[in-house]
Amino acid sequence: MTHPDEEYSHMKALKRHNDMLGFVADAQYGVPTKCPCGGGIIPEVSPCNKFPNDFDTQPGRRYFTCKNFENNGLHFRTPWVFAIQDEVTKLVDRVKEMAEEIDRLKAQLYQLHRP
Asked: Is the dihedral of CA 5, 9, 15, 18 positive or negative?
């Protein structure tokens, strides 16, 4: 039987690990600037097929990858296409918000100068 302090420290370590997995999952939106582990992000090009007949891992496929990448779920390796698509969607939403704000400000300005 293990000591209660050992069980508690093991439980806390598992909780930290699960929290980090959640942070990584929540942070994967758009072009990453930094990995949750603290490592920088480097642009990378896939040199060869990872799996035969897999179109997602063909040579030349681009990724944003953590410098300290290990395939344990705690580091970023985001396909370039998905990251750029997220960024474009974010920019389109921002432009729509700005257009609505301009329309609202035009209406306010029109009401101020109305005779």
From this structure: negative
